[in-house]
UniProtKB/TrEMBL annotation, chain B:
Membrane topology annotation: Multi-pass membrane protein
Family: Belongs to the binding-protein-dependent transport system permease family.
Coiled coil: none
Location of the protein in the cell: Cell membrane
Principal cellular location given in the protein's record: membrane
Protein name (Swiss-Prot/TrEMBL): Protein lplB
Length: 563, 316
C-alpha cells in the first residue's frame, strides 16, 4: 500500500515536471530581454562614460533586409559605431506590407526602439498610421532632445519641402512636438535631389534585331507598335523560351510607366481641366489609360502575372531576359550580377524618354525640398532614448557618414585632399561582388539612417573610378532631368475644407488603384469602364467635387499654389 | 421505500463527493488535460476580450478597455459598405461549393480505401493521400502558379508546343472557384478520410456476414449497412463543417487572389485583413470579424438543433 502510494506520488511529480518543462519550452527567452537594456561599460580615459546598449531596430520596408550585413553586430562598420556610441543594433526587416507591419506593432504595443518607415503623407498609407501613433502616444517626443543632438536637429529641418514640413512632417495635430526624423533627404541644394530614373527599359538585342532606336519610342502609339513587333518577332529568353513583350517588377511595380503619356508635371491631387479644377480621381484620362492597358493585356503584350509577381518571380523574369520591356527603375544592382554577365548583348536600353501629356518628356517632379521620405522614429517606451539619438547623431556626423559610405580609413579607403578614395583592391572586390560591400556594413546606413546629405555631391566619384553601371545610371539621369516646381501643393488647401474629415472617413476604405487594376481584367471594355465609373462615382458621392471647388477658391486667393 | 421525488438529506452532497473522488481516482489522466485547458484559456479565451474593439473607437494609447465606446457604428458601416454584398456572396459561394464538393470527398475516398483488399496497396494509397495535408498552402499555391503560369507553366508549355495560345488559368474569374475547390480537395481529402476509416473499422463484421447470407450485393451492403452505420460520424462532421461555413479558407484564398479575380475572391477574412491591418481600421475590421463569428454561432446552433430532431445526432 505504502509502495503504491510512493509510486503514485512519484508518478504525479514526474507528470508535473514534464508539464512544467513543456510549458517553459514554449516561452521564448530570446533577445527581447536584452533590447533596450544598458549595462555599465568601461570608461574611456578623458571621455564621458559610454554604456554599452543594445537597441532593436526595425526597417519597415518590404524587402528592406536586403542591405543588412550577414553579421549584424560584428561587421567593421557596426564595430566602429559601437566603439563611438556604445550602441549595438539588432536589425529586423519585413517581407510583407509596410502599413500592415506598422499597424501590427502599434496595435500590439510592440514598437521596436527605433523604426524606419515610409512617410509619404499623413492622409493615407503608412504616414497616416504613423501620425495616429504619434498623436496617440506611441512615439517619443524628440523636442527636448534636439538641442543636444545637432545632427539630428539638422535632419528635421533640412532638405524638406516647405509645405510638407508644415502640414505633414510637423502636422498641426502634433501640437509643436517633433516625432519624426527624415532620412534620405537632400542637403538643401537642387543638385542633391536624387534622380530615381523611373522609365521603360527594352532589351538591347531585340531593339537591334527590330532595327528600332530606343530614343525613337516616346509616345503611347509607338510603344504599342513596338510591343506588337516584339510579340510577333519570336524572341526568346536565355532559356530559349518566348519572351513576354512587357512587364513589371513585384506587384505590378511600376505599370504606370506604360501610361506615361497621360502624366503631367504635378505636385498635387488636383488637375486643371478646361479651366476647372478637378480631383485626380475624376480625370477623363483614366478611361484612355484603362483601355490602353486592356489593349496590352488582351492582345498578349503585357505580363498577365505582373500584378501577382513576388520579388522572386519578378527577379527570375528580369534576370533571364524574359521581359522584353519592363517599367521600373533600371534595376542595375540585380542585372549587373546576372544577365549582364551572362548575356551582355541583352543589356536593357532606356526607351524615349516617353513624352507626357504636354509633349514634354516625362520625368521626376520635385519641390525644392523633398515631399515624402523614409522617417526614423523612437518608441515611446524606449528605455534609453539618448543611446538611440547618440547613434543617429553620430552616423550623421562627418565622421559617421564617412564610415557609413566608405568604411574604415586605411582598410577600405584613404583620404586624399579631403576626399575619400577607395583602396583599389577593395574597390575591385566590392565592384565584382556587391555582397562583400554589404557584409562590410556599407549598405544599411545611407538609406535608413542618414539624411540631409548627398554622397555624390560631397564626394563625387572621379570619372576614371566610376563603374560602367554608375556611368549608365548617370546617362539615364542626364536624359531624364528632374523638374523642380517651387510652389505649395494645392492638396494642402483641402485640409481647411470644413467637410474634409468627413470626406476622409468616407473614402478611407476606397482603393482607386485596386479597383482600376481590377478593371484591367474585366470581361469587356464596357464592363471595365463601368467599374471605373463606379469607383469615380463613389469618390463623387463622398464630396470630391465640392472639395475641388473649395480648393480652387482657396488657390485663387494666393499666387504660390501649384497643381 | 423512498417516495419518488423525495429529497434524501445529503444526497446531492454525496453525489458531488462521488464525482470528486472519481476525478481524484483518475487524477493522472485529468492532469493531461491541463495543457489543453491552459492553451484554451491563454490563446482562445483571454484574447476574446479584444472583440470589444468592435464597439470602440480604438486608440493606441488608451488600449482596448480605455478607448471610448462607439456603439454599433462599425457594424452599421459594414452593412452600408459598398463591398458588403460582394464579400458576403463570395464567402458564401466558396464555402457552399467546398461543402458540396469537398465534404463528401473524404467519405468517398474512405469507402474506396475500405474496399481495397490488398493491405499493402491500401497503405500506399492512404499515405499518398495524406501527404498533401502536410504541405503548406504557400507551397501548394506556388506549385499551382508554376504549373498554370501563362509564361513558364507546364500546361501552357504543352499548349505552346501544340501551337495553342496560353491561358491565364489563375486570372480567369470563371476558373477561380474550380481551382479553389480542386486544390482544397487535393490537399484535404486524405486527412479527412481518417475519421471515416476509423468509423468503418467499428462496424460489426457480423452485419456484413449476415447480409451476405441474405444475398446482399456490394451496393446493398454499402447503402443498407455502411452508410447507416456512418450516419453519426457524418452528422457530427457536417455540423462542424457548417459552423465554419463563413471560413472560406483564408490562407488559400489570400494566396490565390489577384486583381484579375478579386471580384470573385474577396471574402470576409481577406477583407478583414485589408481593412484592419492594411488600412488601419482596427475597430471596423474587428466588427466584420465579430459579425462573421456571430453568424457562424447562429448557424451551428440551428444546424445542431435540426440534426438532433432529424437524426438524433448532435453536439450537445
Amino acid at each position: 500500500m505504502r509502495k503504491n502510494k510512493r509510486r503514485s506520488v512519484l508518478g504525479m511529480a514526474l507528470i508535473a515536471l514534464l508539464l512544467f518543462m513543456t510549458m517553459t519550452a514554449c516561452t521564448g527567452t530570446g533577445g527581447k530581454e536584452e533590447a533596450g537594456t544598458n549595462e555599465p561599460g568601461p570608461k574611456e580615459s578623458g571621455t564621458e562614460e559610454i554604456k554599452p546598449v543594445t537597441l532593436t531596430f526595425l526597417s519597415a520596408w518590404n524587402g528592406g533586409g536586403a542591405g543588412f550585413p550577414q553579421d549584424q553586430e560584428n561587421n567593421p562598420v557596426a564595430g566602429q559605431i559601437r566603439e563611438k556610441t556604445g550602441v549595438t543594433l539588432k536589425l529586423e526587416s519585413i517581407t510583407t506590407s509596410e502599413v500592415e507591419k506598422l499597424n501590427t506593432i502599434f496595435a500590439s504595443g510592440t514598437v521596436p526602439d527605433i523604426v524606419n518607415a515610409p512617410f509619404w503623407s499623413t492622409t493615407g498609407g503608412e504616414g497616416q498610421v504613423i501620425k495616429k501613433a504619434a498623436t496617440e502616444g506611441q512615439l517619443l517626443d524628440l523636442t527636448p532632445y534636439l538641442d543636444k543632438y545637432p545632427n539630428v536637429k539638422r535632419l528635421v529641418t533640412t532638405g524638406i519641402a516647405k509645405d510638407f514640413a508644415e502640414f505633414d512632417l510637423n502636422s498641426p495635430e502634433f501640437e509643436g512636438k517633433t516625432y519624426l526624423i527624415p532620412t534620405e533627404t537632400p542637403d538643401g541644394t537642387p543638385e542633391s535631389i536624387h534622380n530615381w530614373n523611373y522609365g521603360l527599359f527594352a532589351r538591347g538585342d531585340i531593339l537591334k534585331a527590330l532595327n528600332v532606336k530606343a530614343e525613337d519610342i516616346d509616345t503611347q502609339e509607338e510603344l504599342y507598335e513596338l510591343l506588337v513587333k516584339i510579340r510577333d518577332g519570336g524572341f526568346k529568353d536565355i532559356g530559349g523560351k518566348p519572351v513576354i513583350p512587357a512587364g513589371t517588377m513585384w506587384n505590378g511595380w511600376d505599370y504606370g510607366q506604360f501610361l506615361a503619356g497621360w502624366t503631367d508635371y504635378t505636385i498635387s491631387d488636383y488637375r486643371e481641366v478646361d479651366g476647372k479644377l478637378i480631383h485626380w480621381t475624376q480625370s477623363k484620362d483614366h478611361e484612355a489609360r484603362l483601355l490602353y492597358m486592356r489593349k496590352l493585356i488582351t492582345e498578349g503584350l503585357f505580363d498577365l502575372e505582373a500584378f501577382n509577381n513576388t520579388s522572386t518571380t519578378a527577379n527570375e523574369k528580369l534576370t533571364t531576359g524574359k521581359l522584353a520591356v519592363f517599367g521600373a527603375q533600371p534595376m542595375l544592382a540585380d542585372l549587373q550580377k546576372t544577365l549582364y554577365k551572362t548575356n551582355p548583348e541583352m543589356q536593357y536600353e532606356l526607351l524615349g524618354p516617353m513624352k507626357n501629356k504636354s509633349g514634354n518628356i516625362r520625368t521626376q517632379v520635385e519641390k525644392p525640398g523633398r515631399s515624402g521620405f523614409p522617417v526614423l522614429f523612437l518608441s515611446a517606451d524606449i528605455k534609453d532614448p539618448d543611446a538611440a539619438l547618440r547613434y543617429i547623431d553620430y552616423v550623421n556626423s562627418e565622421e559617421g557618414r564617412l564610415l557609413a559610405y566608405f568604411g574604415i580609413e586605411g582598410t577600405h579607403y584613404t583620404m586624399e585632399n579631403g576626399i575619400p578614395q577607395w583602396i583599389p583592391d577593395v574597390k575591385k572586390q566590392f565592384d565584382d561582388n556587391p555582397d562583400l560591400k554589404r557584409d562590410a556594413g556599407l549598405n544599411y546606413l545611407p538609406g535608413r539612417f542618414i539624411g540631409a546629405f548627398s554622397s555624390e555631391v560631397t564626394w563625387p566619384t572621379p570619372e576614371d573610378q566610376k563603374t560602367e553601371w554608375q556611368k549608365l545610371e548617370e546617362s539615364f539621369s542626364a536624359r531624364m532631368p528632374i523638374q523642380i516646381i517651387d510652389k505649395v501643393s494645392a492638396s494642402y488647401l483641402a485640409r481647411e475644407w470644413p467637410k474634409y474629415q468627413e470626406y476622409i472617413d468616407k473614402t478611407s476604405s476606397l482603393n482607386f488603384d485596386e479597383e482600376f487594376k481590377k478593371a484591367f481584367f474585366a470581361a469587356s471594355d464596357e464592363e471595365a469602364l463601368n467599374m471605373l465609373h463606379s469607383v469615380q462615382e463613389k469618390f463623387r458621392a463622398a464630396g470630391v467635387e465640392e472639395m475641388a471647388e473649395f480648393v480652387a477658391q482657396k488657390a485663387a486667393e494666393r499666387d504660390d499654389v501649384g497643381f | 421505500m423512498v417516495p419518488k421525488g423525495a429529497v434524501i438529506p445529503g444526497f446531492e452532497q454525496l453525489k458531488k463527493n462521488k464525482k470528486l473522488s472519481k476525478i481524484w481516482q483518475f487524477r493522472h489522466i485529468y492532469l493531461f488535460l491541463l495543457p489543453a485547458i491552459i492553451w484554451f484559456l491563454v490563446f482562445a479565451y483571454y484574447p476574446m476580450y479584444g472583440i470589444l474593439i468592435a464597439f470602440k473607437d480604438f486608440k493606441f494609447n488608451l488600449g482596448i478597455l480605455g478607448s471610448p465606446w462607439a456603439g454599433f457604428k462599425y457594424f452599421e458601416q459594414f452593412l452600408n459598405d459598398s463591398s458588403f454584398y460582394d464579400v458576403l456572396r463570395n464567402t458564401l459561394s466558396i464555402s457552399a461549393l467546398k461543402l458540396i464538393f469537398g465534404f463528401p470527398a473524404p467519405l468517398i475516398l474512405a469507402l474506396m480505401l475500405n474496399a481495397v483488399m490488398h493491405k499493402r496497396i491500401k497503405r500506399v494509397f492512404q499515405t499518398i493521400s495524406y501527404l498533401p495535408h502536410f504541405v503548406s498552402w504557400v507551397v501548394v499555391v506556388t506549385l499551382l502558379q508554376k504549373i498554370l503560369s501563362p509564361n513558364v507553366g507546364l500546361i501552357n508549355d504543352i499548349r505552346y508546343q501544340m501551337g495553342l495560345d496560353p491561358i491565364f488559368f489563375m486570372g480567369k474569374p470563371e476558373l477561380f472557384y474550380p481551382l479553389v475547390i480542386i486544390s482544397d480537395i487535393w490537399k484535404g481529402v486524405g486527412w479527412g478520410s481518417i475519421i471515416y476509416l476509423a468509423a468503418l473499422t467499428n462496424i460489426d463484421p457480423h452485419l456484413y456476414e449476415a447480409a451476405e447470407i441474405d444475398g446482399a450485393g456490394r451496393w446493398s451492403k454499402l447503402f443498407k449497412i455502411t452508410l447507416p452505420c456512418l450516419t453519426p460520424t457524418i452528422g457530427i462532421l457536417l455540423i462542424f463543417s457548417l459552423s465554419g461555413i463563413l471560413n472560406a479558407g483564408f490562407d488559400q484564398i489570400w494566396l490565390m487572389q489577384s486583381p484579375a479575380t478579386l471580384s470573385v475572391s474577396e471574402i470576409l477574412d481577406t477583407y478583414v485583413l485589408k481593412t484592419g491591418l492594411q488600412q488601419g481600421q482596427l475597430a471596423y475590421s474587428t466588427a466584420i470579424g465579430l459579425f462573421k463569428s456571430a453568424i457562424s454561432l447562429l448557424l451551428i446552433v440551428a444546424v445542431n438543433n435540426i440534426s438532433r430532431r432529424v437524426s438524433n445526432v448532435s453536439l450537445w
